[in-house]
Amino acid sequence: MLDKESEDVASLLSTLDKYKSIYLEPTHPVAFKLPKVDHSIEDQWILAKIIQSINSDINQYKVQDVEPSEDGGPGQVWQTDLKSIIALPVHSKSTFKSSTLVLGLYPDTTSFYRATVIQPPDTVANRTTYLLRFEDDDAPFQTVSPEYVISLPNGTN
Question: Which residues form the SGF29 C-terminal domain (predicted)?
Answer without folding.
Answer: 20-157
